[in-house]
Design brief:
Layout: H1 2-14, E1 19-20, H2 33-45, H3 61-73, E2 83-86, H4 88-100, E3 106-108, H5 115-123, E4 127-129, E5 135-138, H6 152-161, E6 164-168, E7 192-197, E8 209-212, H7 218-229, H8 234-246, H9 249-274, E9 279-280, E10 288-292, H10 299-309, E11 311-312, E12 314-315, E13 331-335, H11 341-366
Parallel strand pairs: 1-11, 3-4, 5-6, 6-7
Antiparallel strand pairs: 2-8, 7-8, 9-10, 10-13, 12-13
Length: 368
C-alpha cells in the first residue's frame, strides 16, 4: 500500500492539472527570490569566495551568530558555538536520535506526527510509540500535521517526565497570531535537543537547518555531522547568511504569516461548504489541516480517484506512529500552503466529488 500511495503522490506532483493539497510545500510565489538573488551575488563576490570552498562541520560562524540572535529574541539564549548547521532539519533529527538512543529503543512521539521523522527513527532501528518513553520527539510551537500549539502546562509536564526531548521547531516562525513561542530549549539546556530550519520560510531547496544539543553531547554531534557529509552546503549557508545580514527577515515572516493564515481560512471555508460532515481543528500555524472524514474507506482507492479528479492530499496513514493503529474514519492532511488562493475552492470541490465516488463504491461492495 505504501508504494502505491507513493506512486500516486508522485504522479499528482508531476501533473500541473492537479490541485495539490499534498506534500507540505511552502508557497513558491512567496520565496524572496530577489533578495536571495542579491544574497547569492554578494556571496560569489566575497573575497576568497568561501561560498564555493570547504568549511568546518559546525557551519559558517556569522550564520550561527544570526541564528543565535534570532533565538535570543524568542527567549532562548545560546552561544553561536553551540549551534551546528545541518543539511536541513531532517539531518538534525537523525543526528539527535543517533546521539540519544540505541537500536531497538523506543522514542516517544505523538500518535500522529511528522512522517519523515518516523521514517528516520525506523531506519535507525528505533520504535516510535505514543506510550510513555524516556526520549520524546515533539513539535511544541506548531505541530505537524494538526498545526496545534502545545499548552504551557503540557510543556512543563513533558519536561518533568522525559530524560531528553527532541524539539522540532520547523514551523515556529509561522504561528499565525502573536509572537513566535519561546522554544522549549529555553527551559532546559541540559535535556532539550533543538532542531531548527529555514526550509519552511526561505526555501527547502537551500537545505539549511541547525541543531543545538546539550553541551556534554556537542562534540559527539559534531563528529556525527562531519562523518555524515563533512559540512552543510557552503553556497546555501552563504546565501542565508547574506540574506539575514542585509534583509528584514522579521518583516518577511509577518508577510508569510498573513498569507498562510488567509489560505487556511479559505480552505476551512471551502471545506465547510463542500464537505460539511468532515471535521478538523483550526490550525494555530503551519501549512495544513488535519482532517477527519465521516467514513472509513480504502485510502489508496480514494487517493487514486482524487488524482483522477485533479486534486491530491496527504494520506493519513503516513502520519501514524503505528501503522494500522487507527481503525476509525479515514484521516488526511490538506495543505493550503502551496495552492493558489483562487484554486482552493475548486480543489475542495474536486475532492468532494472524489469522496462521493469512493464512498458510493464502498457502499455498493457492502450490499449483499
Amino acid at each position: 500500500m505504501a508504494d502505491a500511495l507513493e506512486r500516486l503522490s508522485r504522479q499528482a506532483a508531476a501533473d500541473r492539472r492537479v490541485i495539490g493539497f499534498g506534500g507540505g510545500l511552502p508557497c513558491p510565489a512567496l520565496f524572496p527570490r530577489r533578495a536571495l538573488t542579491a544574497a547569492f551575488l554578494r556571496a560569489l563576490h566575497a573575497r576568497n569566495v568561501p561560498a564555493l570552498q570547504y568549511a568546518w562541520p559546525e557551519g559558517f560562524a556569522t550564520l550561527r551568530q544570526h541564528i543565535a540572535a534570532r533565538l535570543a529574541q524568542r527567549g532562548a539564549r545560546v552561544s553561536p558555538d553551540e549551534i551546528i548547521v545541518t543539511s536541513g532539519a531532517q539531518q538534525a533529527i537523525t543526528i539527535a536520535a543517533q546521539l540519544l538512543l540505541r537500536r531497538g529503543a523506543r522514542v516517544g512521539v505523538d500518535a500522529e506526527t511528522y512522517p519523515s521523522a518516523l521514517d528516520a527513527f525506523r531506519t535507525l532501528g528505533l520504535v516510535p510509540t505514543a506510550a510513555p518513553a524516556s526520549v520524546l520527539y515533539r513539535m511544541p510551537a506548531v505541530a505537524n500535521p494538526g498545526g496545534a500549539t502545545m499548552a504551557s502546562t503540557e510543556r512543563r509536564a513533558m519536561l518533568a517526565r522525559a530524560r531528553f526531548v527532541i524539539e522540532d521547531d520547523a514551523y515556529g516562525d509561522l504561528l499565525f497570531e502573536g509572537a513566535a513561542p519561546t522554544p522549549l530549549l529555553a527551559a532546559s539546556r541540559s535535556r532539550v535537543v533543538y532542531v531548527g530550519t529555514f526550509s519552511k520560510t526561505l526555501g527547502p531547496g537551500l537545505r539549511v537547518g541547525f541543531l543545538i544539543v546539550p553541551r556534554q553531547l556537542h562534540a559527539r554531534a559534531l563528529r556525527r555531522k562531519a562523518d555524515d557529509d563533512l559540512q552543510a552546503n557552503s553556497l546555501s549557508q552563504a546565501i542565508v547568511q547574506e540574506y539575514l545580514a542585509h534583509d528584514d527577515f522579521e518583516l518577511f515572516l509577518r508577510k508569510l504569516r498573513r498569507h498562510y493564515r488567509r489560505r487556511a481560512e479559505r480552505l476551512m471555508t471551502a471545506m465547510a461548504r463542500h464537505l460539511p460532515a468532515w471535521t478538523w481543528a483550526a490550525p494555530a500555524g503551519g501549512f495544513g489541516l488535519w482532517v477527519h472524514t465521516d467514513q472509513r474507506v480504502d485510502e489508496t482507492a480514494f487517493l487514486r480517484r482524487s488524482v483522477s479528479a485533479g486534486v491530491s492530499f496527504d494520506p493519513g496513514s503516513r502520519f501514524l506512529c503505528q501503522a494500522g493503529a487507527h481503525d476509525g474514519p479515514t484521516r488526511l492532511r490538506l495543505c493550503f500552503s502551496a495552492v493558489p488562493e483562487t484554486a482552493i475552492d475548486e480543489g475542495v470541490r474536486r475532492l468532494a466529488r472524489a469522496w462521493a465516488t469512493t464512498t458510493r463504491s464502498a457502499s455498493s461492495r457492502r450490499v449483499p
